[in-house]
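ok so i was messing around last nite and threw this chain in just to see what happens. nothing serious, just curious
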Amino acid sequence: MRKINILITTILLASILLLPMVLAATTLTSPVTSGNYSGTMTLTATTLINDSNTAYNVTFYYNASGGATATKLVTVTNTSAAQNTFTSASYSITGLTDGMTYNFSAYADNGTDQQWSTGVGLITIDNTKPTCTLKKIYNNPEYKGLQELIWTSSDALSLVSTVTTIDRPQSGSDMVYTDANRDLTLLSTDTNFVGEWTATTVATDRAGNTETCTSTWKTDSGGYSEEQMVENAKEEAQTESTSSFFGLPGWLIVIIIIGIVFLIVKDQK
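result:
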């Protein structure tokens, strides 16, 4: 029984000694582990080492993962008694190296007690937008038939989404695609609307950076099907061949005709 009493007493004493340390916990709540950030960052920490009669503060630090001593970012001083939360909103991180991974931590100090938070790591700085391209083929003639769109998107660190929206004229509903890269052929069943078209590709990375590419074109009232498009192309090719007289340019044909007329007139003399 005596041993049990001694054990209980020891546990109680240890709890009393450790209680202030538990209550005095300082925690970094923003940024978050494995987060990607661009442009600005909200720095937030909570602490319980406050003292209503003393000015106290929390300082935020960072260092490159695997790097040396932490570098100070900013110090936030309490603005009210017994303040628990310290925040620096929209802190600029454009000075940090793009694409590098960092660790962040907070240091609370009330003049008597000091305490570091647990570090938050694997934070990536990404201030660079993704890239995208978008182009339309079959520009001439622009029938209500085959239309080809080609788009690409990429990001050096973390492309998370690509949305391509084709805004059809008249009562045509939008066509939406989520492929990062695609060569899309719109058939006559897709393009049976006349007027101005707009295709937009928006690429987004994990940090929230976006890049937008746009292509616009018009369709006429021809209403041609794929088969008719092929026939039209053949007829146009044949017309070009005939009008150019076996492929000869128009100016050369004129010179030949003048030369023939000159020879005929000369022979008659």
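not much to say yet. Confidence is low (pLDDT under 50) at residues 5-23, 240-244.
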